[in-house]
């Protein structure tokens, strides 16, 4: 087991945002957390990266308890986090954003290697290497935050709503990239509101509602389930 | 023809004086703008770092420590002083409303000024900084003379600013400082120890204030516990003038402040500061975020 969350509880102010959820990720998997706004998806990711406090529960990564590891050390341990809303460092160039992604790394030659790898995955970023990130298009910004997330050489990548606010054709491109990243051996925890596209790339998934896991299973099972079909795919069961 | 030349010479003389004074303001303004950029805090006690560093140089020079060494020691004092200031006074208030830190900064300033005044080896009275540099005059033309102290001021200030520029633009620490000021949470997700970056920011600003302290002491060799107030205040205004949070803004704002103040003093010494404040008002009316400040925010 690469990664395991058990009985996680997170409070966001007075709101009990995550109410004792458990899930796990095997090495090499893409696992998706589905759910509407306010289901507790982003809170779960923020708790894993320890940028919001955990109330109770345990998070185990590579057989190590990481619940009390400070945020800046989580990255070093091998978890990359790509936040929602395309949070590029808007005044920094594409290059400087990638340098920030490699912040915890020391070896210059390895960093350059990874930059080349990122550019082969996202060739459009290479054309814009000296451009200030805030001036990129939405799709390019999403590619930049993903490339940046890879620069720490994570074994687990947390992706928060990569489809948010992007045109459908760009969404397809981004999700093709997600598969390519996974094929390089990086496990992925994918948080999405768009269940259809998420389940098209994921191996397994969990459905969250108001901070609880209400359903789990393989991508096929979830696609067939009435809960997902009615609530997230807009289909009515006849 | 002769009259025109005289006016020209007068302008150049005042320009040299203004740039020299402006260099000190620029060094100080950088400290304000960097801390503001990263914490959105106006560190009102920043001017007092200038004073403390000037006294450190004073004591060291009186102990016959060579001036360059005293200069380095003063910069180190400024850096260390700034870090301690942050850790003791501002860090406990990090998650509190900014107003509390702002009022605390004023408190720190008063504490340092009056604390130094109360210390037996500093005291309230003026002290004269020893003449460690023999003043030499270099005549550029018949009437335009520049002193070696002015040259030292300019060379030191400009080389320190270039060094800072390099750190901010080219080093990993500099990129991290800019990243933290744009998005602290995002920087944390990159593995940045944000508290350490904040300390480094205070240290850099403090070191520049330390340098400004020694440059002030060799140029205007009268030391008092309150000597940091006016340069601090003017540098703060220079930083706002240039666009607070902007590094080039602080450099240009500081220089302009020095030049305008000197020029206005030459015309009428009574209204020197008034002229600058008037200009500040005009600039802020036209560009509310200062000369180099951001006028628009990116879409989030």
Give a written overview of the molecule:
The complex is a heterodimer of chains A (238) and B (300). With 238 residues, chain A is α/β, with parallel strands linked by helices. Chain A contains ten helices and ten strands. Chain A has helices at 41-48, 71-77, 94-101, 108-121, 123-127, 138-150, 168-183, 195-201, 219-224, 226-231; strands at 3-12, 15-25, 30-34, 56-61, 64-65, 79-82, 156-160, 187-192, 204-209, 212-218. In chain A, a hairpin with a 2-residue loop joins β9 and β10 (212-218). In chain A, α3 (94-101) runs parallel beside α6. The longest helix of chain A is centred in the C-terminal third of the chain and has 16 residues, at 168-183. The mean pLDDT of chain A is 92. Chain B has a single domain, classed as ABC transporter involved in vitamin B12 uptake, BtuC (Orthogonal Bundle), CATH 1.10.3470. Helices cover 72% and strands 3% of the residues of chain B. Chain B has helices spanning 2-39, 46-62, 67-90, 98-118, 148-170, 172-182, 184-189, 194-219, 229-242, 247-267, 272-286, and strands at 127-128, 137-139, 145-147, 222-223. Chain B has a two-stranded antiparallel ribbon. In chain B, β2 (137-139) and β3 (145-147) form a beta hairpin. Classes of the chains: A alpha/beta (238), B mainly alpha (300). At the A-B interface, α2 and α3 of A face α6 and α7 of B.
